[in-house]
TrEMBL record:
One of its GO terms (molecular function) is metal ion binding. Catalyzes the reduction of sulfite to sulfide, a step in the biosynthesis of sulfur-containing amino acids and cofactors. It comes from the Bacteria. Residues 92-156, 341-406 form the Nitrite/Sulfite reductase ferredoxin-like domain. This is assimilatory sulfite reductase (ferredoxin). Signal peptide: none annotated. Belongs to the nitrite and sulfite reductase 4Fe-4S domain family. Keywords: 4Fe-4S, Heme, Iron, Iron-sulfur, Metal-binding, Oxidoreductase, Thioether bond. Its cofactor is [4Fe-4S] cluster. It is an enzyme of class 1 (oxidoreductase). Its EC number is 1.8.7.1. It catalyses: hydrogen sulfide + 6 oxidized [2Fe-2S]-[ferredoxin] + 3 H2O = sulfite + 6 reduced [2Fe-2S]-[ferredoxin] + 7 H(+).
Length: 557
């Protein structure tokens, strides 16, 4: 005998915290703090109270939440090894000093700006200064007592730390050769400036589900890693409409890497700010806020699909539909700007490399002086942690390169030095498991000593944790920090390895060997071994990424 039992009602899914669907009631502590007050109100408290009364006067919600909107957050307490990461609370890991992130939207620097940041570094940051792959400069060891004076000095040269961190639109990546490169499709600088001056100050963009990353470049090299940004505009020549932009949305790395997707549209430069604001608006109103690890635009794009995303953008956020166009093909080849390259006006720009982006305050001052000696007024930071010096006559290139080399930069770096980047790592970051920056510098030195150089491009990335701030999943050799157990049962620093990751025409997230980990103490031997295997086994013209696809596990281990 059968009975027709009533079907169990489906459990109603939990709300995702999408404002336009679930309402704006906060579903976690972070959302509660953001709704209590405008985050930027904390700036005045820093000036009036905290800088006078010291670190211990700062309440927890300000120091761990709202300070991010000001571009500062506490750095890791010294001598706490990676085994404590994830085991201690944030307040237990934090020191009474701050990391400070100085924004360089579009990478726009000058000798004066570098000198001022160098002097701040020298006077207040124990001479720390790191160029980042977001075109910023980060300082460490900042005391709360010194922050108002630092802001005053930065403001005097048009720089800021505001929105350097936090659930806001972060610094806007831009082509470092905008307006000058001979191979440029369109100069994107006016769009970046319009967003920076007329959109970023608006309160409507100051409470997003989480951070929001933007890149805008009109360079044919596609030189702003557009595939892994929340929104990116890259130069596009349309056969009928001429130079404009394609828009990509929904990219990002970390523990759930996703590549951005084209809207399939051609966008004139006049509409780039409007489209940017529309994409940010969608993220604000429909982004997932309940769970922080899902509060990125890429998860919404993955759920909706690109067709629905464009439909919502056009019908709810734009004044008129976009013009259809085929997605822009990805470019192959090197995207960095190392070396001398022609400008449109007959002059040249020169790209040089600080190893893993590391510098000192005194070095920044020396770089500024070298530039001024040659009448250079325009300098650019890049997403590859380079420095570019613009407007150099051909006959002065060698002399400029020689003077920059004397400051500790590399005008002709080896491929190892050219292609290596690292995150902050265990030295200062509360999320890190391993030391990265000093280890990356040591690794480059060891590779140059044991191998010399290599005649093809090779990117190496050292990351202190799974968040992939140094782009481990899209590097030839990507190293993700972990705490491992050695043969004697000791908890030690080590890495999980990604091999053959890439952006561009061969875009992929790399190959992981099952169960393969490398102890930090054995890192040099491992990388040397894999690079030598590549050199011996590669076919003519075969890139490292192509080789890793067919190489056997023994050659990669």
């Amino acid at each position: 005998m059968t009975t027709n039992a009533p079907a169990r009602p489906k459990r109603k899914p939990k709300p995702e915290g999408q404002w336009n669907i679930d309402g704006t009631s906060p579903l976690n502590k972070e959302e509660e703090v953001k709704q209590e007050q405008e985050a930027f109100e904390v700036k005045q408290r820093v000036i009036d109270t905290y800088s006078k009364q010291g670190f211990d006067s700062i309440p927890a919600d300000d120091i761990s939440k709202r300070f991010k909107w000001l571009g500062i957050y506490t750095q890791r307490k010294q001598n706490l090894g990676g085994e404590y990461t994830g085991q201690l609370e944030n307040h237990e890991l934090q020191d009474k000093y701050f990391m400070m992130r100085v924004r360089f939207d579009g990478g726009q620097a000058t000798p004066e700006r570098l000198r001022v940041v160098g002097e701040i570094s020298r006077d207040f940051a124990r001479s720390t200064a790191d160029f980042t792959d977001r075109q910023n400069i980060q300082l460490h060891w900042i005391r709360i007592e010194d922050v108002p004076e630092i802001w005053r000095r930065l403001d005097a040269v048009g720089l800021t730390t505001m929105m350097g961190c936090g659930d806001v639109p972060r610094v806007i990546l831009g082509s470092p050769t905008a307006g000058v490169a001979a191979d440029e499709i369109i100069d994107a600088s006016p769009a970046i400036e319009e967003i920076k001056e007329n959109y970023l100050p608006r309160a409507e963009f100051h409470n997003l589900p989480r951070k929001f990353k933007t890149a805008i470049s009109g360079n044919s090299r596609q030189d702003v890693t557009h595939e892994i940004q929340d929104v990116a505009f890259i130069g596009k020549n349309h056969p009928e409409y001429g130079p404009g932009f394609d828009c990509f949305v929904g990219g990002g790395l970390s523990t759930n890497p996703m590549l951005s997707q084209s809207l399939g549209a051609w966008i004139p430069i006049e509409r780039v700010p409007e489209v940017w604001a529309g994409v940010v608006g969608i993220f604000r109103d429909y982004g997932f806020r309940r769970l922080r690890n899902r509060a990125r635009l890429k998860f919404l794009v993955a759920k909706w699909g690109i067709e629905k995303f464009r439909e919502v953008l056009e019908t709810e956020y734009l004044d008129s539909p976009l013009l259809d166009a085929e997605p822009t093909p990805l470019q192959s080849g090197i995207r960095d700007h190392i070396g001398a390259h022609p400008q449109k006006d007959g002059n040249f720009y020169l790209g040089v490399k600080p190893t893993v982006g590391h510098a000192t305050g005194e070095q920044l001052i020396a770089i500024a002086e070298a530039a001024e000696k040659h009448g250079i007024t325009r300098i650019r930071t890049t997403p590859m942690k380079e420095l570019l010096f613009l407007d150099i006559p051909r006959e002065k290139l060698a002399e400029v390169a020689r003077d920059l080399d004397a400051t500790g930069l590399y005008s002709k770096p080896s491929e190892f030095r050219r292609g290596i980047i690292s995150c902050t790592g265990l030295e200062f970051c509360k999320l890190a498991h391993v030391t990265t920056k000093s280890r990356a510098i040591e690794l480059v030195d060891e590779l140059e000593e044991r191998i010399g150089d290599i005649d093809s491009s090779l990117t190496i990335s050292l990351n202190g944790c799974p968040n992939a701030c140094a782009r481990s999943q899209v590097s030839d050799i990507g190293l993700k920090g972990q705490t491992l157990t050695d043969d004697e049962g000791n908890r030690v620093e080590g890495f999980q390895v990604h091999l053959g990751g890439a952006l561009g025409i061969e875009q992929n997230f790399g190959r992981k060997l099952k169960g393969h980990k490398v102890l930090a103490s054995e890192l040099g031997d491992y990388v040397v071994r894999v690079v030598k295997n590549y050199k011996q086994q590669r076919e003519e013209g075969e890139s490292f990424a192509q080789w890793t696809v067919r190489a056997d596990e023994e050659a990669l281990s």
